[in-house]
Amino acid sequence: LAAIPAAVYMLQDQEVHAAEMERTFIAIKPDGVQRGLISEIVSRFERKGYKLVAIKLVVPSKQFAEKHYHDLKERPFFNGLCDFLSSGPVLAMVWEGEGVIKYGRKLIGATDPSKSEPGTIRGDLAVVVGRNIIHGSDGPETAKDEIALWFQPKELVSYTSNEEKWIYG
Ligand code: ADP
């Protein structure tokens, strides 16, 4: 009998955690893939304590790239950017964790690698803005839209990692 309240407490605790979990869309662009930076980039998210819930290697069409970057269609670099994104394999991923949308952007660093802090992915691994190796959603709405654009719901995997109790307490 004494086990029942504990079990209920555990369940509630997990539910509280689940409510705080966020998901973000992260992509290693063709330059990052070609330069052999997949494991380096994935390991930074993994070591931080975020959980990989979807991953695939795809060559997006130009039309798909235009959809992904639709917000930037008035910018002078839009066409070149979409040509570039569709020029080779992209590693598309969804990462999950508390605050992963905002902090994922911190791990990535500023858009222009010449202004990204050392220690960030772009700061450490890229030089110019047109070849900045990685994309990350910039807010909760974008994350939702980008995950839906790149992945079907069945491609997202929900699971409990044994490390979670050591990451979140
Ligand atoms: P972020 O990728 O950091 O969210 P933006 O959404 O502003 O940045 O831009 C999307 C992508 O467009 C950038 O990651 C970069 O690849 C490209 N880009 C941004 N500004 C320029 C620029 N001035 N010249 C060329 N490419 C650019």
UniProtKB/TrEMBL annotation:
Q: Which cofactor does it need?
A: Mg(2+)
Q: What is its main location?
A: plastid
Could you say which residues form the signal peptide? none
**GO CC, alphabetical:** chloroplast thylakoid lumen
Which residues belong to any copy of the Nucleoside diphosphate kinase-like domain?
21-158
**What GO molecular-function term can you cite, just one?**
metal ion binding
Which superkingdom does the taxonomy of this entry point to? Eukaryota
Keywords of this protein's UniProt record, alphabetized?
ATP-binding, Kinase, Magnesium, Metal-binding, Nucleotide metabolism, Nucleotide-binding, Transferase
The record lists ATP as bound by 29, 77, 105, 111, 122, 132
Extract one GO BP annotation from the record: GTP biosynthetic process
Keyword Disulfide bond part of the UniProt annotation = no
Q: Where is it located?
A: Plastid, Chloroplast thylakoid lumen
Q: What is its EC number?
A: 2.7.4.6
Q: Which catalytic residues are annotated?
A: 135
Catalyses: a ribonucleoside 5'-diphosphate + ATP = a ribonucleoside 5'-triphosphate + ADP; a 2'-deoxyribonucleoside 5'-diphosphate + ATP = a 2'-deoxyribonucleoside 5'-triphosphate + ADP
Biological role stated in the UniProt entry: Major role in the synthesis of nucleoside triphosphates other than ATP. The ATP gamma phosphate is transferred to the NDP beta phosphate via a ping-pong mechanism, using a phosphorylated active-site intermediate. Shows the highest specificity towards GDP.
How does this chain assemble? Homohexamer.
Family named by the database record: Belongs to the NDK family.
The protein's name: Nucleoside diphosphate kinase
Native organism: Triticum aestivum (Wheat)
Q: Which gene encodes it?
A: LOC123150058
Full-protein residues shown here are 78 to 246 of 248
